[in-house]
Amino acid sequence: MPRPTLLVRSALVAVAMVATLALGACAAPAQNAEVDPAAPDVGIQLFQLPWTSIANECETTLGPNGFAWVLTSPPQEHITRDEWWASYQPVSYQLQSRLGTRDEFADMVARCDAAGVDIIADAVINHMTGQDDPGIGFAGSEYAHYEYPGLYDVDDFHHCGLTTYDDIEDYTSREQVQQCELVNLADLDTASPRVREQIGSYLDDLLSLGVAGFRIDAAKHMAADDVAAIVGELPEGTRIMSEVIRGGGEPITPEEYTAFGEVFEFTYARDLTPPLSNGVFSDPELGGDRPQHVPSENALVFVDNHDTERGEANVTYRDGDMYVIANALMLADDYGTPIVYSGYAFSDRDAGASTEADGSVSDATCAEASGPREAYDDGERTCVQSWDAVIGMLRFRAAVGDAPRMPGVDEGDAYGFEREGRGVVAVNVGDEPVTIRIPTSMADGDYCDAITGGATSGDAQSCVGAQYSVESGEAVFALEPVSAAAIHVPVRQ
Ligand code: LAG
Ligand code: CA
């Protein structure tokens, strides 16, 4: 299905709005003029995808469909091991990794920028690679090209007094969490001015290539003051996304990191994930009780990421339609900034992405229109950025703009809510078909479902997927088991 680029779409919306002004109220339903055509601020994590492939995705899929930014895997030089997590064991700040060269990284940033997509780089600055004795004895070792002796001295690392560093759960104090080795990785002394300067130059280098900001890997393992001092030297407007996993009873909270940017709100992922039997979505009165925590403007919300899909997430690409449901609810919500996740299938949690003979990760291209699959071969890309349902929900999000979220409605295993006057989403997580009626102030009439393909214009004739109607102030959805639907006011094209 041809999808207009954002630019074209905005231009056409502008033309439509001018036409509406010129012709008066009869030219289009009044609600169309209120639709905010701005691209929603939705990001996508493209896990272990090479720079050349990301550049391609920006041009073919992400830009045209309105994704605002991509979170890449770490671009730093790393240890030579097959597992994906080699990326989280940097050995230098050179932009040379199995995902591509410095030139390829720069080319990706430029091409994505031209397509209207920002690049957020995953910055691993809490630690260098795991070593018993950081900073010495690397010549001739497994890490022959190890460069951090040139960057750092032994004194630039914390040497924790604990005898076992393997299990972070053993760390109970603030000092242990932030100044002890995280899974045996050599912990940088981020309080040291010298260390801060080295990290700062690395981030500046990435900014000089045009990145828009950073995911701060393992932010919880650096004092918030240290992170604040490091990012405080960066140009205003640099986007900072701190990874601070919220834990029960842990001494360090995400709230400590909101003064200088966004944080990943793990609570949202935990509460959102189906089977939705945790009560979060079963309260018809829920109103403001939906999953949220840090203030919306600081919250990055997600269904899963590269760590949780290998661990705590109870819905992932493997769950097909249930995964679509979770993503649809997240993208329909008005809390936080969503980040969609796209990785590759695996049965071994350590397995890296498919590589070429020289060890570099193989390029991958996603089919233009797709959806969840029943089964994947190991290593196969999930391509969630190309799923019709996800793209449809980006349009839904653009169409609903900042319309308030109305209280949720329950009907058996079905659940839904309205974004006031602009759109309605509904899901059925049960084994039986359910018809759910959701009060709405949208005008009576037939609407095209965004999940099953959407419409190519505001004209019902162009609807590719299912249609649902609004009757006497209620949106009516007859939903098959484990399915989702979303209707929104037409965006004129
Ligand atoms: C993160 N966020 O705070 C990343 O999102 C997460 O993926 C990283 O762990 C972690 N912090 C460190 O940056 C990953 C893997 C670990 C892996 C680690 C370092 O989940 O399994 O540890 O990266 O590569 C591996 C081994 C450990 C070993 C360690 C050091 O699994 O058993 O102790 O390497 O050799
Ligand atoms: Ca630390």
Could you explain how this protein is built, in words?
- 50% of the residues are buried.
- β2 (69-71), α4 and β3 form a beta-alpha-beta unit.
- With 493 residues, the chain is of the alpha/beta class.
- The chain has helices spanning 6-23, 30-34, 51-65, 102-114, 148-151, 174-179, 193-208, 224-232, 266-272, 321-332, 388-400, and strands at 43-46, 69-71, 118-123, 127-130, 185-187, 213-216, 239-242, 262-264, 299-301, 337-342, 409-411, 414-419, 423-428, 434-439, 445-448, 467-471, 474-479, 483-488.
- α3 runs parallel beside α4 (102-114) and α7 (193-208) packs across α8.
- The model is unreliable at 1-38 and 133-146 (pLDDT under 50).
- The radius of gyration is 24 Å and the shape is globular.
- It has 2 domains: 6-399, TIM Barrel (Alpha-Beta Barrel); 403-491, Golgi alpha-mannosidase II (Immunoglobulin-like), CATH 2.60.40.1180.
- The two termini are 15 Å apart.
- It contains 11 helices and 18 strands.
- Helices cover 24% and strands 17% of the residues.
- The chain has an 8-stranded parallel β-barrel, surrounded by 4 helices.
- Bound molecules: ligand LAG and calcium ion.
Gist of the model:
The protein has helices spanning 6-23, 30-34, 51-65, 102-114, 148-151, 174-179, 193-208, 224-232, 266-272, 321-332, 388-400, and strands at 43-46, 69-71, 118-123, 127-130, 185-187, 213-216, 239-242, 262-264, 299-301, 337-342, 409-411, 414-419, 423-428, 434-439, 445-448, 467-471, 474-479, 483-488.
